[in-house]
Amino acid sequence: MHLSRYFPASALALALVALAGAALLATSAPVRAQSATEIVVRLNQLEEEVRRLSGQVEQLTFQNRQLREQLQRFQEDVDFRFREMGGPGSSLPPPATPPSAAPAPGQRSDVFDPGTSPGAPGAPQPLGTTTPSTPLGTAEAPPPEGGGAPLDIAAILRGEAPVPSVERAGPSIAATGSEDPRFDYDSAYAYLLQRQYERAEMGFRQYLQSHPRDALVPDATFWLGETYAQRGRHREAAEQFLKVSTEHAESPKAPDAMLKLGTSLIELGAREQACATFAELTRRYDDASMPVREAVERERRRASCG
Predict the structure, then answer these.
(1) CB within 8 A of 225, min separation 6: which ones?
(2) DSSP codes, 131-192
(3) Domain tally, the chain
(4) Which positions ≥6 away from 183 have C-beta within 8 Å?
(5) Which member of 169, 194, 252, 276 has the lowest number of beta carbons within 10 Å of its beta carbon?
(6) Within this chain, do residues 52 and 162 fall inside the same structural domain, yes or no?
């Protein structure tokens, strides 16, 4: 029997083509499904690779930020040491621009301005004109607990005796710092570099009250002590250096703070306590930098330590 008797030739050709197409689709369907599965697996692999690379970028960004902060602190220390020795300082720019001392337009007339009232109480005074601190052991210094015996600085540094708390007369400084700890720190440090020690003291105290948990608290405490030492207020300076040595013993500033503590004790006439401080520094920080070790030997000779 011939199909052409019942179907025209054109219809028969179309039927054959349809059957061939159906067979082709039936054979290519598994191939397309396999290709789609491979594409999904590849996309998942690419997404995982992107997430891994993003994590590496974030880690490198964090490490880079840490290195910048360490370089900034190192620059600050170098600048201050150069200026303290009378040198020109480093060529790097200062950490931050201090707030302008000029009154802003529209400022109230009852606001205290040390520039217009240099003789008023609380106004900055030239270096060497302020009244020095009372030496240790005098009647004005509060005696330690348990009697009038001198403080055992070595025992305090070893943690065998409590750190004495000295109450100061006068109102405390209100915590009026900004929300940015670094800005407050840099502003106070800029005043220190300019040898405006009263303003630097105010800035560091405000920073410490506003940001007591910040990472730069040991550095700020050290520089606060330096503002007192530069004005001959050696007792207040010794208090701050002792605080760094005891409360932040693991800080990079701790060896310098102990050195400055011994120097302040020499200025206060407490040579035996100064010698004990230098001995404890050498014992505790045997890996101290060469400048610190040389300064310790120099101060030991000045105090006639045995």
Answers:
(1) 236, 237, 238, 239, 240, 241, 244, 257, 260, 264
(2) PPPPPTTSTTSPPPTTSSPPP-HHHHHTTSSPPP--PPSSPPPP----S-HHHHHHHHHHHH
(3) 2
(4) 96
(5) 169
(6) no
Q: Is 183 a member of any domain? A: yes
Which residue, of 41, 73, 105, is where some domain finishes?
73
Quote the CA–CA distance of 88 and 81 in Å, as a whole number. 10
- Residue whose structure tokens are 């050195």: 259
Tokens of 71: 């370089």
Can you give the residue range of the structural domain that contains 266? 153-302
* 85 band by pLDDT with thresholds 50, 70 and 90: low
Question: What span, in angstroms and rounded, lies between the C-alpha atoms of 57 and 129?
Answer: 55
Residue 140: is its pLDDT beyond 70?
Answer: no
Round to whole Å and give the CA distance between 221 and 300.
24
Q: What pTM did the predictor assign?
A: 0.52
Same domain for 298 and 157, yes or no, is yes
- Residue 244's Cβ-count burial label (10 Å; 0-12, 13-18, 19+) is buried
* pLDDT tens figures, 87-109: 444 444 444 444 444 444 555 54
Question: Could you tell me if 90 and 79 are in contact, meaning their C-beta atoms sit under 8 angstroms apart?
Answer: yes
- Characterize 11-41 residue by residue with b for buried, 16 or more Cβ atoms within 10 angstroms of its Cβ, and e for exposed: eeeeeeeeeeeeeeeeeeeeeeeeeeeeeee
Residue from 213, 256, 216, 265 nearest 236 by CA: 265
Nearest-CA neighbor of 260 among 216, 285, 295?
Answer: 295
Answer yes or no: are the C-beta atoms of 210 and 175 closer than 8 Å.
Answer: yes
Half-sphere CA count of 175, side-chain side, radius 13 A: 9
Torsion-angle region of residue 146: left (phi > 0), alpha (psi -120 to 50) or beta? left
Residue pair 249/256 in contact by the 8 Å Cβ criterion: no
123 lies in some domain? no
CA angle, 169 as apex, 111 and 161 as ends, to 5°?
A: 135
pLDDT at 305: 92
Last residue in a domain, options 55, 73, 91: 73
